[in-house]
Give the backbone structure.
Amino acid sequence: MAGVASGNDFQWCFSQVKGAIDEDVAEADIISTVEFNYSGELLATGDKGGRVVIFQHEQESKNRPHLRGEYNVYSTFQSHEPEFDYLKSLEIEEKINKIRWLQQQNAAHFLLSTNDKTIKLWKISERDKRAEGYNLKDEDGRLRDPFRITSLRVPVLMPMDLMVEASPRRIFANAHTYHINSISVNSDHETYLSADDLRINLWHLEITDRSFNIVDIKPANMEELTEVITAAECHPHQCNVFVYSSSKGTIRLCDMRAGALCDRHSKFFEEPEDPSSRSFFSEIISSISDVKFSHSGRYMMTRDYLSVKVWDLNMENRPVETYQVHEYLRSKLCSLYENDCIFDKFECCWNGSDSAIMTGSYNNFFRMFDRNTRRDITLEASRESSKPRATLKPRKVSTGGKRKKDEISVDSLDFNKKILHTAWHPKDNVIAVAATNNLYIFQDKIN
Amino acid sequence: SPSWSGLNTNRKMRADGDDSLYPIAVLIDELRNEDVQLRLNSIKKLSTIALALGVERTRTELLPFLTDTIYDEDEVLLALAEQLGNFTMLVGGPEYVHCLLPPLESLATVEETVVRDKAVESLRKISQEHSPVDLEVHFEPLVKRLASGDWFTSRTSACGLFSVCYPRVSSTVKAEIRQHFRTLCSDDTPMVRRAAASKLGEFAKVLELDYVKSDIISLFTALASDEQDSVRLLAVEACVSIATLLPQEDLETLVMPTLRQAAEDKSWRVRYMVADKFSELQKAVGPEITKNDLVPAFQNLLKDCEAEVRAAAANKVKEFCENLPEDNREQIIMTHILPCVKELVSDTNQHVKSALASVIMGLSTILGKDNTIEHLLPLFLAQLKDECPEVRLNIISNLDCVNEVIGIRQLSQSLLPAIVELAEDAKWRVRLAIIEYMPLLAGQLGVEFFDEKLNTLCMAWLIDHVYAIREAATCNLMKLVEKFGADWAQNTIVPKVLGMANDPNYLHRMTTLFCINALSDVCGRDITTKQMLPVVLKMSEDQVANVRFNVAKSLQKIGPVLEKITLQNQVKPVLDKLATDKDMDVKYFAHEALSGECLPYEYS
C-alpha cells in the first residue's frame, strides 16, 4: 500500500501526538493553526486560548535514526489576550488565526501571529550565558557594606542552562475593521500583507503605525455586499504578485507594480459553474477557504468545501487538477447546513516538492493526493493507532448501498472531529495534523 | 533615578573613605538592572565606567562582557552601539582601537535595523582611527566575516563598510573588497541586494575611475534590472552618484540606457523613484541629455497612469523648469511642459492636483509677465475654484511668487470667492489654514481691498464655535495690526472687539479679553489705556467667574503697556477687589496678577 508523495513507495507511520488525552476538551486548547518554519526545524501551533507553542525537531543521532519525525516543545508563550473594544462594544477573541514564520535573519527566529484584529511579531531567541558578580551585593544577594567597596568588579558571563525566550517585537494594530483571515510574508523580506473580510493591507515589518490599503472591496452601501475575501497570499518569489480568494469561489491575482491600489486585478481565476449540479448550497460550498501557492510559484491550490483545485497561474478559465475530498457529503449538505459544518474552513498544503497535496476532512480523516500518479489516500489521526512507528491504515468511507468490511458508513462519521489545519515539512515527508486539541506528527516509513 | 538619590543618603552616612568608587559600582551593577531606564542610564555613562576601570580593564573585562550582552532592549543596544563609536581613547588610543571591533561586530548582526545601522556608523567612525596596518590586520577581516556571514543581517551591515576601508588598503586587498561587493550585489536575499544597491553610489565614489567603468557599471545595470522592484528602485538613487562621477562623453553609453529603462519600468514604484529624484538626475546628466532625454521622460511621468507617480512628478515641475538650460528654457516649457501641466490642473486625483498647486505659481517667475498672464493665470484661476480645499489653499499660500511678477490684483476677482469659501469651510482645519495666510494676503492685497472685502471675515472668525479658530483669529488680528498700524486698528477693529464685551455669550466676552491680550502691545499705550482698559475693568463685574479671572490675567498681561499711575489708580483697586472674590480661581489669578504685576511699581 503506497503512501502519497514524490513517487517513492512508502507508508505513513505514527511518530508523536501532542496534547492531553482527556475526553472533554477545553475550548482554549483547540488548535487553530499549524505552521512549519522555512527549514522545518521548528513547528508552531496557535490555539483558541491565544497561546503559541513552538516545537523543535529532535536532533538525529546514529543510534536513534527514527527520531526524524520527532519534535519537542521548544517554547510556549501567550501571544494574544482576550480584549474588549469599548467603542464598538465588541469582544475580541484571543484565538490565533494564523502564524507565519519569517525567513531566518540571525540566530533568533521570528514569527507573525494574528487574532481577529492585531498582528504581532515575535522573536524567539536562546540564551545560554548569565552575567555574574555584583559590586553592591554578594553571591547570595546580600547587600554589601557600601563603606567597604575597595575595588570595582565587572560582571563575568558564565554558562547556564539553555533558556528560550519569546519577546514581542512589534504590534501591528488598529488597521482592520473586520476579522483578519490571512497574513502572508512577502518575498522581498520587508513587507507582508494582512487580509480581512473586505480589505487587504500591506505593512512594512519595521513600521507599526502605518499600513497601505491595497485592496478594498467594501461597497459604499453595505446592503450591496455580495462577496467577501476569504484568504490571501503573496507569491513565493515575485514580490509584486499576490492573490486573494473570495466567497464566490473566484481568485484574483494582483500585480502591485501596476498601481498603488490593486482594486483592479490582473488575472481572474474562475471555473464556470456546471448548471446541472446547481443547488441552494452551490454558492456556500464554492466559497474558497484557503489558497496556497506552490513552492515553485507556478501553481496555486484552492480549497472549497468539497474539493481541492490546482490552478496553473497561466490558465484562468479552469483548474488544471481537481480532487474530490469528500464527495460523499454532497447528499448530506442539508444537515451539514443545519449544524453549521458547511461553513467550516478547511486549509490545504503542498509537500516540499509540490508533487503532493494534503487537506482535512471529518471524523479526524485527512486526505492526500499524489499529483503525478493521481492516487489518493485517506488517513486517520487517532489515538488507537498512536503506537510508535505504527503504520497508518488507509480508511474508506462507503458510499454505495453495501458497506465492505473495513469501511465506515457516511452516517457514522463524527462531524465534531474535523481536521482543519495541517502542515507539511518543507523538505521531508513529515506532516503535522491538528485534530481538535491534539497535534499528530506522522512520518514516512520506507519499505 | 532612584538609585542616585539612594546614593546620596549613603554618602551622607559615610564618614570618610574613598567615595569615588561607589557611584561607579552602582553604574556597573545597573548595567544589569531589571529596569530598562537604569540600564540605559548606565550604558549612556559607559565612558565614566571605562575611565574608572582604566584602559587595561576596559579592554580585558568590560568589552568582553559587552560583546556578549546583545540580548538587551533595542534602545539599550542602540545607545551601546553609539557609545562604542567614541571609545577609542578609553581603550588606550588608536593602537588598541581594534578591541572595539568584537562588540560592534555582534551589534552589526542584530535584527533591528536602527541598531545595526548605528553599529555600522560607529564602525565607519573608528575605521578612520585604525592605522593602515591595523585596517588590513583587524578591520578588513571583520568586513569579510560580515560579508560572508550566514545571515543576511550581517551581510547587509558589510555593505556599509566597504567604502571606508577601500581607499586605505593595498591593491590586493582592494581587489578582494571589490570581489566581495560584487558577490553581495548578486546575493540570494533581496535585503542584501537592497543594502548593496543603496551603497553602490557611495562605493563608486571611492573607486578608481577605471573600476567604476568596469565594475560599478555592470553591477548598476544588473541591480537596475533585478527581478524585485524594491531593488530596482534603489538603483535610481545610485544613478545620480554614478552619473556625477563619469565624464560627460561616457554617460550616454554607460548610464542612459539604464535610466531610460527605469523611467519606463513596469513597476510604478520605480517610476515614482525616478520622478522623485528627477532634479538630482537632471543636474547629474547635464543640459544636453536633459534636453534630449529627460524632457520627454518628464512628460511621460507627468502623464503616468499611476497617480502617485504623477504627484511626484508634479512636485518637481518648478525645479525641473528652473534647472533647464537657459538658452531655450522658455521654448521647452511652453511647448513640452506646459501642455502636460494644463492637463494636470484637471487631474482626477486630488493629491496630484494639490502637489501641482504647491509649485505651479513658481513658474511665473521663470516665464515672465506676459506668459504668466496669458497661460498661467487661467490655470491659477481654475485651481482657485477647485473642489478640493487643499488645492485652493496651496495656491493661496504661494501667492507671493505671482505677486512679484504680475501683481495680485490680476487674481483678486477670483481670489475673493475662493477665500470666502475656505473661510466658511465645514472643516475647521481648513478654516485654520486660511486664517494663517490672512496676514500675507492682507500685505499683498493692501489695506483698502482688505477693509472692503476681508475685514468682515476676520471678525467673524472671532465668534467661530471652535476654540482653535477663535484663538487663531485673535493672533491674526495682532499680525494685521503689525502690518497696517495702530491707527488702522483704532478705527477698524478695536471698536468691534470691544463691542463684543457686551455679548450675551460669555465665550464671546472672553474673546474680547483674548484680543486685548494680543493687541495691547501692538496698539500701544494710548489705545490700551483709553479704550481697552476701561472695558477690561468694567468686565471685572461680570457674572461669570471665567470672565472675571480672565480679567485678572488680562490686567497682568497688559500691565507693562500701562503707566505706573494708571496701574496704581485704576488697575490695583480692581485686582484688590478680585482678590477677595468668592470664586477660588478668580482669587488665585488676582493674587498672581498682584504679585507679578505690581511688583515693579512697589519697588520703584
User: Anything to note?
Assistant: The CA atoms of residues 243 and 284 of chain B lie 6 Å apart. Chain B touches chain A through 48 residues (CB under 8 Å). The first helix of chain B runs from residue 2 to 13.
